[in-house]
Amino acid sequence: MPTVAPLDLEGHVVGVAFLKDIPFFAGAAGTIHRLDQGHKTTELHDGLLSLAYDEATDTLLTGGEDGKVMRVSADGTASLVAETPRKWISKVAAGPQRAVAFAYGKTSYVRLADGTTKEFPEERTVEGIAFAPKGLRIAVARYNGVSLHWVGMAGQPVDLEWKGAHTDVSFSPDGRFVVTTMQENALHGWKLDAKPGAEARHMRMTGYPAKVKSLSWSAKGKWLASSGAPAAIVWPFQGKDGPMGKAPLELGTRGNTMVTTVACHPAEDIVAIGYEDGMIIAARFADSKEVLLRRPGKGAITAMAWNRSGRQLAFGSAAGDCGVVDLAG
């Protein structure tokens, strides 16, 4: 069995990431912890709400209840990206060319590398933001759908409408699909047609017994793994129409124990699956083979991240029991 290096923290862990192969753990109270030749901390926010990994710069972006957006480097140093006093920064996202998106209330903001900030108002509260994989374009999740904005161009957004509360949003790695999690127990997707004027096609992904709070695309974007069931529900996106008319894989089924977090491997068609009792397994898409990575712990798994080589997996829980799984043993 793989070895686990444990780290016990106080309180809920919002997110985890590797920066230069150093594992980072972000606590809801606002402290960032890292395991770098010992346990080290950076006091960052008065309450941390959101976290995103910036692959282009190998840094972390965070948003807090103190109205600050911060960037954290691998050595733990933090710099201020933006500040909006008395506003809670509920969402942050990292984009190309060092662009940073963040949101509070009914407005999304994109701060460019030169310091220019663009505003994108919505009629309803912003629930999620994601950058397209190519080009400076953002998707904003809101009530009744998603707004697509080109950051460098003024004009009307493209509205992807679907009734209901959309709580987060994600682009497929090839940029052909947009998928949202919903307040109801479902995902909703749109196929973005490249032809001018053509309407986006809808995809409904339903049947979950609980809300979906975690999504992860496979390395080549052919699969989308999700939580919200007693198994990881993995939808096929290989075909031109994505999962329409196709059944998902169900990996790591464990009775009535719910999956709370999923994290696809950076190179292989494998997904790490975290459960409400703290257990973690890895499952392979091709044959559903499972490997136990961690036995049950104190709290539900709330965050997981692989390092770049895919040999280590960092995890955090609602109870603060964290750690790093080393697959090399």
TrEMBL record:
Stored Gene3D superfamilies: YVTN repeat-like/Quinoprotein amine dehydrogenase
Protein name stated in the entry: Anaphase-promoting complex subunit 4-like WD40 domain-containing protein
InterPro entries cross-referenced by the UniProt entry: Apc4-like_WD40_dom (IPR024977), Quinoprotein_ADH-like_sf (IPR011047), WD40/YVTN_repeat-like_dom_sf (IPR015943), WD40_rpt (IPR001680)
Organism of this sequence: Sinorhizobium glycinis
SUPFAM superfamilies: Quinoprotein alcohol dehydrogenase-like
Location, primary (coarse class): other
Subcellular localization, as worded in the UniProt entry: Cell projection, Cilium
Top-level taxon in the UniProt lineage: Bacteria
A Pfam family reported for this protein in Swiss-Prot or TrEMBL: WD40
Repeat found in the keyword field: yes
Transmembrane intervals: none
Key words of the record: Cell projection, Cilium, Repeat, WD repeat
Domain Anaphase-promoting complex subunit 4-like WD40: 266-326
